[in-house]
Amino acid sequence: MKIAILGGDGFVGWPTALHLSDAGHDIHILDNLSRRWIDTELGVQSLTPMDSIQERTRIWHAETGRRIHFKLIDLARDYELLKNWLAEHRPDAIVHFAEQRAAPYSMKSDRHKNYTVNNNVNATHNLLNAMVELDLDAHLVHLGTMGVYGYSTVGAAIPEGYLPVGIETMDGETVSQEILYPSNPGSIYHMTKCLDQLLFQFYARNDGLRITDLHQGIVWGTHTEQTRRHPQLINRFDYDGDYGTVLNRFLIQAAIGYPLTVHGTGGQTRAFIHIQDSVRCIELALKTPPARGSRVEIFNQMTETHRVRDLAEMIARMTGSEIAWLPNPRKEAAENELVVRNEKFLALGLDPIRLEDGLLSEIVDVAKKFAYRIDRSRVPAVSAWTKEIAPLINHDPEGKRLKSAS
Ligand SMILES: NC(=O)c1ccc[n+]([C@@H]2O[C@H](COP(=O)([O-])OP(=O)(O)OC[C@H]3O[C@@H](n4cnc5c(N)ncnc54)[C@H](O)[C@@H]3O)[C@@H](O)[C@H]2O)c1
């Protein structure tokens, strides 16, 4: 298949491009490289040394003889460029990662809120609009998030996208329907993913677009089978307070002797998936497109759930790290349960990598190896969800220790 990977220079997009290229597909990455600019804005860098996208694709060609093409396009702003590219290439499938994906970044300031909404909603809408205009019957696979459901449950498992409900009619009868599970976004970033869902519902129903939306858990790990093939194919690894996801942050904190930073009671339960499983799920989704005219296909792309403090305690036990209990910058329930249904990918053959099996090798192979690249001052998460929370945030969890040591 000819597959366009939008956002293919990113953390999940790059290993997906390699995985699908390795499987024999013709891969085209479209990306505006905004994530690299945001690194510059924040004064951070990936823990792993990343080459330019052109260099990465050159190395892949040298290693495998396979070409991955790259086109610099801003999906949110270059509508005509995007439309012309799609008209010329007419891909069989499109995988859409191209959004601003950090909740803390989206909550940094009013400017960051505007940027995230404009970027994410326009990128998705421009794509859908162009597909209809060009009569492009490509299967669109979008990376959404488990965060669209929110994290408080009523003791029932979260279904894969649709909730069966009974609605009482005027005659007192009960009519059964399946509706989109009620959205409950916890940040501006998550809100854009909820808006994406509505755009997909509309375009699938109105124009018959074939769409799969993957509600993904927090991705952990770095390597996939293909990124291991050459040092310059390595994936990015974010550890900073805005883009670093919770487990990857604990890993580098353990590797550099920084206290594991738990926000609040650490009673937040979250869904996780290893990067290798994430790329496998995307391949499985591509192999099973919905029929034209059917509703949006939704998968929960996660393999296990954990409470944040349990993860911190597990890593502390494995590495002898301390835990720092900090005020929570987010406005969220202190404790939540999370039970998630994920049978659809398991039924398609996914055999998940378990967190306990992969953690130590991530600490040793990646976090310790590149620890010299870490700027400790970028580790704390300081984006506050509200003006009331902002003054409570601890900007230097190490401060007391460093002072007493000096
Ligand atoms: N990483 C996770 O843990 C996680 C969890 C759940 C869902 N997701 C979703 O998966 C997708 C990919 O996440 P990631 O971690 O790889 O993020 P990332 O930031 O590493 O990659 C996103 C890529 O999209 C590009 N991009 C952003 N806006 C663009 C635009 N307007 N035009 C063209 N390119 C643009 C960026 O330059 C970047 O290369 C995101 O949509 C995210 O919401 C990620």
General description of the model:
With 406 residues, the protein is of the alpha/beta class. The protein has a domain at 2-232 and 273-304 and 339-354: Rossmann fold (3-Layer(aba) Sandwich). It has helices spanning 13-22, 34-42, 53-64, 79-89, 103-106, 110-133, 188-207, 246-255, 275-287, 308-319, 343-347, 355-368, 399-405, and strands spanning 2-6, 26-31, 68-72, 93-96, 139-145, 162-168, 174-180, 210-216, 218-220, 260-263, 269-274, 297-301, 304-307, 323-326. The strands form 4 sheets. A 7-stranded parallel β-sheet has the order 3-2-1-4-5-8-12, with helices on both faces. Strands 9-11-13 form a 3-stranded mixed β-sheet. Strands 6-7 form a two-stranded antiparallel sheet. Nicotinamide-adenine-dinucleotide (NAD) binds next to helix 2, helix 6, strand 5 and strand 9. Nicotinamide-adenine-dinucleotide binds next to helix 2, helix 6, strand 5 and strand 9.
